[in-house]
Amino acid sequence: MSIDTKRLSIGKLLGSVNEVFRIPLYQRPYNWGRDQWNDLWEDLIRIDGNETHFLGSVITISQQKQKGFTYLELVDGQQRITTILILLIAIRDLARESDEERAAYIDNYFLKSSTIDEFEPKLILGRKDNKLFKKLVEKRFNGDESKNKKIVQAYNFFIQKLQNSKLNWQHIYTKLLDSLDLVLMVTDSYYDAFKLFETLNNRGLSLSSVDLIKNYLLSKFSSNEDEDLLEETIEIWDSIIENIEDIQSVRHDKVRFFRHYLFSTEYGVVTIPRLYSKYQWLIDTSDDLSGLVKDIWLHSEMYLKLYNGMMGIKEIDERLKNLVRIEATASYPLLLKCFSQELSKEQLILVLDAIEVFMVRRSVCDISTRDIDRVYNHLALEAFTKQNPIYYIIGYLKNKTPTDNEFFLHFQSRDFNRSGQTKYILEAIENFLTNNTKEKIIGERSDVHIEHIMPREIGRMNSNNDWQKELGVKATEYTLYVNKIGNLTLLGSELNITASNSSFSKKKGKYEQSAITITKNLCQKQRWTFDEIVKRSKYLAGLAKKIWAFNNTK
């Protein structure tokens, strides 16, 4: 990180002859208000004698010289610098009434930069503020215009303060230039500037890779000084972010989408720390930046539809929602590619079913997800170069999926603790047994809960003593069995609450009232023991092996 750092007075900061500060067009407008103006004013007038007051840091990016001017792009500090210059304009305008020479000096040395041939305002603001600010600098401001603008309000605030102050304007002018200090940080790297900003502004909300990407991308558009194109790009970017934020899931943040976009369009898996540098390269090498932004937007539109299951075809939408429930959204790079191709409904269903088999089996068998991004990145970029893409996708996933025997054994022995995925698995088994005839019963998923036949905890309440008697001396082993699939079923919320920690004989009365087959079948049992849990786990594992099988995807 190469950064030039200097502590400077305001006079030295603004007194450089040919330096011009420029606020990027994509930055927010000037928005300081009375509280901030008053804080600056109070800090200034409280300075005593040779004391100085430190205003903080200003972060800039050094840009190529143009027409003899050195432009410094303000990444952080634009509100302070703008306010200080507005105060200087107010001092200059008061000075014109009694000291025209001093007013001209302020004008030429602190409000403007110059070369042999021309002048440039010391500060160039963003697209919404610069015209008005330039009028103030050039003394073309009509006091009645734009009264509601923050810049005008700030100017009027300082004029009033100067007129009512016990200190004359000359004293305040001297304090402003000589007694206010700040640290100027200059780098030629956007990445270094934005990461430095994050470090110095540690307010609990970090500047994410997506923020860095946005700033770098928009800086390219603002350098072209085409405000209409910049405005259009900002609107498109905002739409991208809105689409991602509409995904109501803590597991899906903006960074994940931008990684998935890359995985669907570029070879190689990019880690989160490398995401910004990858997009920086993508932006720098693009021949059509507007086209790139629009392509990201189109993918964000598709991404939202994938997550919400809103492709408009019932069989496909149901499968997309299932993938969310089993936490299989790592497959989105492949799906972004598939849904951009001219595939039939049947072909898309084959892909979705294959992904579900792949993800469920790997999850149940606790296969590491370390290579999962590489799998989907490979398929997104390679499958559609093959003669039969769908066959290639299914075959590739099958080769990386646990075998029938591995799946069968793990399904029986593992603990099922992830409630969303477990509930989906139990529902799938129920639908398989009933050929989907009971789909309406478990369709209202918020009203159906996972029921532990043997309660999750026994012995804490008197009502659980029956379980201790039922299990006998092995009661201490219940933690080894309580979360096995054989001890789990589905039950409507009202029945679930009333069944709760009751004995098995009492629970059967509630199970008898249930319309869910895998629950109703439990009524055939006289007792519920560890042996029964093992038997039922094995039975359900056999069904699962048939449900999540690649032969179902052909």
From TrEMBL:
<dbReference type="Pfam" id="PF03235">
    <property type="entry name" value="GmrSD_N"/>
</dbReference>
<feature type="domain" description="GmrSD restriction endonucleases N-terminal">
    <location>
        <begin position="10"/>
        <end position="218"/>
    </location>
</feature>
<dbReference type="InterPro" id="IPR004919">
    <property type="entry name" value="GmrSD_N"/>
</dbReference>
<dbReference type="InterPro" id="IPR011089">
    <property type="entry name" value="GmrSD_C"/>
</dbReference>
<dbReference type="Pfam" id="PF07510">
    <property type="entry name" value="GmrSD_C"/>
</dbReference>
<feature type="domain" description="GmrSD restriction endonucleases C-terminal">
    <location>
        <begin position="402"/>
        <end position="541"/>
    </location>
</feature>
<protein>
    <recommendedName>
        <fullName>DUF262 domain-containing protein</fullName>
    </recommendedName>
</protein>
